Amino acid sequence: MSGNSNMKLSTDKDVKDFSPEQDRLYSATHEEILSGATADVYLVRTQEILAREGKADTIVTAEIFPSRPGILAGMPECLHMLEGLPLEVWGLEEGESFEPKETVMRIRGPYSLFGLYETALLGILASSSGWATRAAECKQAANGLPFYCFGARHIHPAVAPVMERAAVVGGANGAACILGAKLAGQEPVGTIPHALVLILDDTVKAAVAYNTHMPKDAPRTILVDTFKDECEEALRVAEVLGTQMEGIRLDTPGERGGVTEDLVREIRARLDMAGFSHVKIFVSGGLNPEKMTRLAEAGADAFGVGSYIAAAPPINMTMDIKEIEGRPVAKRGRIPGVIHNPKLRRFM
Known about the structure:
The protein is an alpha/beta fold. It folds into two domains: 12-129 and 313-346, nicotinate phosphoribosyltransferase (Alpha-Beta Barrel); 133-310, Alpha-Beta Barrel (TIM Barrel). Helices cover 39% and strands 16% of the residues. It has helices at residues 12-17, 30-35, 41-52, 75-82, 111-114, 118-142, 160-170, 178-183, 194-200, 203-213, 230-241, 261-273, 289-298, 307-310; strands spanning 59-66, 70-71, 88-91, 97-98, 105-110, 147-149, 174-175, 221-223, 247-250, 280-284, 302-305, 317-324, 327-328, 345-346. A six-stranded antiparallel beta sheet has the order 13-12-1-5-3-14.
């Protein structure tokens, strides 16, 4: 759906007359976003005032820049919002790094066509780039080992797929959220939760049931911290599944001390001594880059990262008008005229 195919809120009366259903999910629909219903109200009032002053279609050049360095994500959504509009749009490529105050997006055209979208454009880039940047930090800490985004449970479901896709842009090897993974062009990752082990009342029973009922291409990585000592459970499952077993997952809760380097070292040693060197150790639960580095050194093979990525602070984005009818302008504190950036690519 292109950005100009929906009725837009264009006057203060439109805002007053807008009456969304209350018995609904509180997340905005695509149609509401494109109509301007998620915009700051002063942007609608600006559109109305400019229209009454005969200035609505003034040709302007606006630039978006960040407050701190990071990894860009969200550009495809921004372009989708502007799709079909007679605008010139430049931007950084998705997944490219940026520095503070570097121009990451430039839009040129009649202000009436895109001014209403300032809130949404900034919000998309701010949140998605924040998530992607946290994922890039995890990638560096993993030092070549795979890690996956498990953050959907820490965030509103309406934006969970946006977050997990952004994590993949930032370097995650995959995502657990079905829609997030699919939007990133991947299949979702994950095996079993504690719920399955609790209901079947035994880790080995859960492992055998998973191995029996799941397709061959589903990874055989079994959670081993539900009932008994992790080392004991890891060996019990490995003895039953044998060469079919790909790995174990450690998600020991904080109440039991969490997953420690010593625990990883002990499990690795015991698996190796029992002839199960092929079994990988997958760690999840409260991870951050510092913990990932330590656990990798102890012998962990892969990671699931949730809250660290999901709770990423947005990277503040600002949109400034830098030209009006080709004339350089700027508010106080900013340099008039467009800021040259050779990294920008023209998208529209």
